[in-house]
Amino acid sequence: MSRWLATVSPERVERQALGPRGHHLRLRPHARPEASRLVLTQEERQLVAQWLTSRAERVRWSRLLAVSSQPMLAEDLLRRLLEAGWCEVELHAEAGMAEVDLQPYWVNWCDAYALRSLVDGPEVPASTEVVALWRGWQPRQPQLVRLAESPAANLHSSTLERRLKLAQALDDWLSAGRWGSERQFSVQALGRQKAFNEADRQWFAEFGIDLEACGVSRGTPHVFLSGPLTLWAGAERLVSANLLQAGVALPPEALLSVTVLDGSVRAVRVVSSLSVFQQLTEEALPILTLWLPGHPHRRWQLALQHLLAALPLPVQVACDLDPRGVTMAWEVGQLVSAAGRSWQPGRWRLRI
Predict the structure, then answer these.
(1) pLDDT at 126
(2) How far apart are CA 156 and CA 102, in angstroms?
(3) Residues 100, 77: Cα–Cα separation, whole Å
């Protein structure tokens, strides 16, 4: 084991073998990056700022080490950044040498934009170049127009640059009609699976953007449904009635391929509460029940309409009695009406 590797906490960092023979090593932090885990001196802030000037998400350690005149300080700072969740480190063995000679080779930043904001300090305003890029952006999707008009010159350049990347990525995502998880969107926008964070969600929410409705889901973007029906796609059985009765989550594309729903149900229920969906599923009534994930994405809507086209049944919609819930129920009602089915607010007693 190398001297530097021996200083890294095994409780805070996961070790994974790399390479066809496992001679290299990837160090991956257990924690996600948080400013509270990292306290830097002014000298360390300046060094990190220098490391981040390239804007690259993946940098050779030798390049970063060459920036500092104090290699011991640089190595210790790298360890602390790793343990605090701000980077991953790949260690390579020198050619012809054994594992004991593993040394840092690549540094992969987990959230370079947030780290850049952390070391810049609150007094650094956005550069005119970044503001100009914002003002020159013309979104293709109308719901993103407010974002295009939102740049604030008092923000960090790194924060503004990050938000522009997120906004442009969401514009591309919507234009392509994509549907996926936050991690997939994070890769498209920021180049890494876990770079998208709570502050990013809150920023989108401030401008009335529902990520679920945009096809960006916190979890796996599937349609949750239950009922005593067997789903067929041509001659292939997709899901048995016994399995569907217990509740399943299927991708919209699978439901759009359904040609026959074999079984008997007397109604369709759409509920906005996952706990209510679970309880209705446990009651095992002859009813097809679907969970409504907020303002649903277009593919979820198409999957619902495809199922309703094969089920000439009334639909009950149950959402919270608040403005958001009423809006969600009305939107689902419009989908049901467009499919040629009648609908009404759901009224039923749950078994306690």
Answers:
(1) 55
(2) 37
(3) 22
Report the C-alpha dihedral over residues 242, 244, 248, 252, rounded to 10 degrees.
150
> Which tokens in the block code for residue 199?
């502050």
User: For the chain, which residues make up each domain, given as ranges?
Assistant: 3-120, 128-217, 223-345
Buried b / exposed e over 106-115, threshold 16 CB at 10 Å, is bbbbbbbbbb
Which residue, 196, 164, 4, 151, is CA-closest to 82? 4
Candidates 192, 201, 216; CA nearest to 58 is 192
What are phi and psi for residue 216, nearest 5 degrees?
-115, 105
Dist. CA 276–CA 282, nearest whole Å? 10
Residue with tokens 């149950």: 318
Q: How many Cβ atoms from other residues are within 10 Å of residue 181's Cβ? A: 17
Question: What are 287-308's pLDDT values in tens digits?
Answer: 999 998 877 777 888 899 999 9
Residues 65-89: pLDDT tens digits?
Answer: 999 889 999 999 999 999 988 999 9
The one-letter code for the residue type at 46 is Q
Check: CB of residue 65 under 8 Å from CB of residue 55.
no
Q: Which two tokens stand for residue 145?
A: 């127009």
Cα–Cα distance measured from residue 230 to residue 159, given in angstroms and rounded to the nearest whole number: 50
d(Cα 4, Cα 188) in Å, to the nearest integer? 33
Q: How many CB atoms lie within 10 A of CB 166?
A: 22
Cα 184 to the center of its chain, rounded Å: 6
Token digits of residue 126? 């956005």
Helix, strand, coil percentages in the chain from 3-state DSSP, rounded to 5:
45, 20, 35
Q: What angle do CA 170, 171, 175 make, to 5 degrees?
A: 115
Whether the full predicted model's pTM is greater than 0.70, yes or no, is no
- Domain 223-345 in CATH 1.10.10.10: no
Reported residue count of the chain is 352
What are the tokens at 11? 């409780």
DSSP annotation of 281: H
